[in-house]
Amino acid sequence: MNKRRALAISGLVAPLLLAALVGCGGAGATANSPTATASATATTAATATAAFQAGGPAVLPALPTATVSLGQCQYQGADTFVFTPTHGLDVSQNIAFGNLAFPSVQISNQQTSPMSVPPLSPADSFTPRTQLAVNPNLYEGDGGYVLLICNTSSQAHVVSGEQVSIERIKLFIGELSAWIPCGPPGGCGGGNAQDEYMHADFAPNAPVGASVTATLTNSFPSGPGPLPVTLQPGQSLTIDVGVTPPTASGYYTFGFALTVDGASTGVVAYSPETLLAPVTHPWGQCASAQQTQIAETPTPTVGRNFFICSEP
Q: What is the pTM of this model?
């Protein structure tokens, strides 16, 4: 099977500052008293409710894992994958973005302009998928979420479909400041060649728990052909699924299930938490009027750096 792989996400993600919600017990309650226990329980529940205002568990259910050699998957790359065993197949739990997803970087609203950031180069343009992704391109073929599916069993299995669900939503409240490292005019380059391209279209007001069947939109010319695909032992498959999300601003986590041998696998992978919200304060290249201020800024001591500024 001819494999061309591009499973990386771009951007240099700044830390996200979240306010902690702290509760107190009733006056005079001891640590082991029923009142203190009830108060602690109520505080935990209130914190979870405030943090996940739109619904969904604070911690997603754990998925079973399997040890899979990337050689068994015919995968060309340096990523470290965790796999979920299901229906004779192993599916990557840690979803990648298409190589042209180019997520933005969230900037703290307390950050002063100009701001020193590491430069982008082929060696440091891509970061681990565990970091927060802000407004990535979610259209399949460019961005979207990519699953790697491997047949490590001794029998052939047929992959015929994919389902996408909303596992949790945390509402985003406030003004978003963000920088697009791979924005216009040239982006960061690269390509996104996967075997199958699909799209999941959610209703504008879709809630947590909503699930849709992804529609096949294209397949790579030299790949195995459009779904359904029969994976022989030792063969692998990548599916890039684009998503039209609900319209509410928030932190979204999607779940992915497959149809294998005519049956649903249930959720076998989660997307990275993805912040989808309008950018109120864009950051970008500093204007010439700010060069004096930049010149007076102490030289960074770590790495090669350049400056970005809050746009007017």
A: 0.78
